[in-house]
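Morning, I've got a small favour to ask if you have a moment. It would help a lot if you went through both lines with me. Thanks so much in advance, here it is.

***
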Amino acid sequence: MEPFNALKTYYAVKINQRPSKSRVACYTPINLSETDLSESIHSAENLSFLWKEHQRGLEISRDITKSLLNDTSKRADILNLSHELPSFSFMDLKIKIAEVIFRECILCPQKCRTDRTLEKGKCGVTEPRISSEFLHMGEEQPLVPSHTIFFSGCNMGCVYCQNYDISTNPQGGMFISPSDLACRIDQCRKEESYNVNFVGGDPTPNLLYVLRTLQLIRENIPVVWNSNMYLSSESMKLLNGFTDLYLTDFKYGNNKCALRLSGVKNYMQVVGCNHKIAQKAGDMIMRHLVLPGHVECCSIPLLEWIYDNLGPDMVLNIMGQYRPLYKAPTYQDISRPILPIEVGEVVGYAKDLGFRNIIN
């Protein structure tokens, strides 16, 4: 059974009963002078001013969304793009902030502070490169068919990456202009897509590009952020207000395994905090890939953390698709395929804890 109540906002956008968050962001007015913008866009020190305006914009967009629930005429205008756009919108503000951050990159917790208009950061990503984009029929049932856009590159280094050919080659694929990609997204939506699904690798290094693309989309479509959730607090703020559904990947139940197998620090603190933020900001489906030999150290404690911090209504996809790819054969504990009994143990434990929305 589909977890309709847990994903009701996403479903409403999917069937055009309400506008997507990104569309509302494009219609949310922000009153900033040219002086305000010119000073802030060239100075990281003045970025705090833009963040204050961003918080105000988020509150205005929420008010607009609430008003649309009862104002069917205005809702129809926004859905049909017949309502006049503001001269400067909440989406414009998000793009301005992302442009400032991009010059001293802090999009992920690595915070390499590289000027990515000139050179690649620790993620290796320079210009956005799309490995592939197509209507994906293999995602979770509520998402299918999903217009899935795979970015090259990633900000994590998982030694068992199932998409290592994409994540480890940030210069692979091709550049598609935001306007061309927006047209492609619109066409897929007209035909049959339920959503646009940004993934990779990971989409985080390309957040600015995603925002520029969303600004040009004409169709009303749910935005799915399909991510490892190893993001900075700044990126999480930017996601809030345009992401309709977070399709997340929660890999580990402790920091030690995350550091050894994915090369990232403070995993539980960062990814745990981001899941709490995402749950408040939009609908969410959480994926957990069961790793061989990691049921006791990762899966069980992670399920307990999720239950205690996110609650029993969390939509979970406990995945048993692990295969020892990429560098995994050189790591003894994950050098074999997952056993059905291991996946069954994790699913059974989730049910015993009381999770009500377990999907596959």
